[in-house]
Write a structure and sequence with these properties.
- The protein is built from 6 helices and 6 strands; from the N terminus they run βαβαβαβαβαβα.
- By secondary structure, the protein is α/β, with parallel strands linked by helices.
- It has a single domain, classed as 3-Layer(aba) Sandwich (Rossmann fold), CATH 3.40.50.
- It has a 6-stranded parallel β-sheet, sandwiched between helices.
- α4 links the parallel β4 and β5.
- The longest helix is centred in the first third of the chain and has 14 residues.
Length: 184
């Protein structure tokens, strides 16, 4: 699938993705990409976050490719059952936090403490780091299995964000292109 044939929805996590974050760079580079905005990026409310993702997917005119990071990946997982049939062509999910990290996080995370365990109804690639401070690799591997997602080992890449040195993240863009090539 070519990017021009899809509506690419960028779904950031807690705090949004800043100007140098790879998601923001991809959004600027990919002509059909747009961000799914949240009412409050610092106080995630399960109903409003998943509702924003659901509404953006269901309003899309072309097949949707979701590009989600961290808590945004979990918002996609929670909202997946509410997407219109056949709306999503695929999801590229990066560094979702583990249930253990979510339970220990000092902020109220409004219903995101548990992960949905149903298989996603569309192809997905879950990218995980071996030293992500927000999730151990085994927990992410288990989530990928539950979701029926392919798992891409990103090595020791931290949380795959600006703090771990992933501004442009060219390796991610290459794996995203490979993922798109496998979609029909």
């Amino acid at each position: 699938m070519r990017t021009s044939d899809a509506d690419i929805l960028i779904v950031p996590g807690l705090g949004n993705s800043g100007p140098d974050h790879w998601q923001t760079r991809w959004e600027q580079k990919l002509s059909t990409a747009r961000r799914v905005d949240q009412a409050d990026w610092h106080r995630p409310d399960h109903a409003s976050w998943t509702g924003a993702v659901r509404d953006a997917v269901n309003a899309a005119q072309k097949p949707v490719i979701l590009v989600a990071h961290s808590l945004g990946a979990l918002a996609v997982g929670h909202a997946a059952r509410d997407f219109g049939a056949g709306k999503v062509a695929g999801a590229y999910l990066v560094a979702p936090p583990s249930e253990a990290w979510l339970r220990a996080h000092p902020l109220e995370l409004g219903g995101f403490q548990t992960h949905p365990r149903e298989p996603l109804p569309f192809p997905a690639l879950l990218v995980a780091s071996r030293n992500d401070p927000h999730a151990d690799y085994e927990a992410t591997e288990d989530l990928a299995k539950a979701w029926g997602a392919a798992l891409l080992d990103a090595g020791e890449a931290g949380h795959i964000n600006m703090d771990s040195g992933h501004g442009p993240w060219p390796e991610g863009l290459m794996s995203f292109a490979g993922f798109l090539n496998r979609l029909t």
